Amino acid sequence: QQQVKQSPQSLIVQKGGISIINCAYENTAFDYFPWYQQFPGKGPALLIAIRPDVSEKKEGRFTISFNKSAKQFSLHIMDSQPGDSATYFCAASPGGTASKLTFGTGTRLQVTL
Amino acid sequence: EPEVTQTPSHQVTQMGQEVILRCVPISNHLYFYWYRQILGQKVEFLVSFYNNEISEKSEIFDDQFSVERPDGSNFTLKIRSTKLEDSAMYFCASRIYGYTFGSGTRLTVV
Questions:
Q1: Which of B45, B58, B104 sits opposite A43 (nearest CB)?
Q2: Is the pLDDT of residue A97 over 60?
Q3: Do the domain assignments include residue A109?
């Protein structure tokens, strides 16, 4: 019940295309859903996050869509660029003081020219 | 932009040896964490630390692991007797609202 399932495992998108990564969760106590971008040899860096009281959040080329009833959320990267090539992790955490993150299994995105 | 600093960036140790991984969290953050990532796998929670005590720990965080905040700035993870399967990237993170992760320490146990 603590798992966050992420797909696809890898994704190849042409420059200028839309990258879409999906995640699903079971634990209804989760109330914070961030996406992290990770480059090789670096730590995860927060990209964008959403709480379940909204269905969509947009920051620049990055959009999270959230479907509370389906317990699913997705990351859309518009106008994908080669510099977006990285591993993307969705995550979720419950409310509360400690709020540990449960990560998805990651999606390796490659944006080709 | 404030950073979480981890040292060393890479540590090689012999099986059975003790290692201490060091972190300097962001100064006004209140919550501190260790996560690990085995090569090519997802990031896994180890332990959270708040108000000078452990808030939560995972099943990975057994008696071989300990954390300490010995002064106002450092946050350490100690592994008493390392095993081969402890080889991973270890990430420190701190939080006041959103998380900030450090760049990690790559621990290689040989």
A1: B104
A2: no
A3: no
